[in-house]
Design goal:
6 helices; mainly alpha; single chain; elongated
Length: 115
């Protein structure tokens, strides 16, 4: 989970850094901080959902091979798949907090001058 959080944080931090000019233009045109926050969280959640879907498909495909290693859980236990997916979504949401906060504090004039 720590590796997932670090990876999502790094990707979101990179996307915010690359999109600084875009965010600055949006803020200069009157976008509220809440809409910038929403934009960053939407990007992060979209990436997390794609990763979870790919992971679920891969996990379901590998259950036959891994069934001998599972103890006390059926290979396709829906509660396990749901709880791990929900935990990963929470980790992704938490990892988006710092880049989203940094995106909301961008000063449009400073960011556009540096471009």
């Amino acid at each position: 989970m720590i590796l997932a959080a670090i990876g999502i944080y790094d990707v979101m931090s990179f996307l915010v850094t690359q999109g600084t000019a875009d965010i600055a233009i949006r803020m200069a045109r009157g976008a509220r901080r809440a809409s910038i926050l929403s934009l960053v969280f939407q990007q992060g959640m979209r990436l997390a959902l794609v990763g979870i879907i790919v992971g679920l498909v891969g996990a379901l495909g590998l259950t036959r091979m891994m069934s001998s290693l599972l103890f006390g859980v059926t290979p396709t236990d829906p509660f396990t798949f749901f709880s791990v997916s929900a935990l990963l979504l929470f980790v992704a949401l938490s990892a988006c907090l710092f880049p989203a906060g940094r995106a909301m504090r961008i000063d449009p004039m400073v960011a556009l001058r540096t471009e």
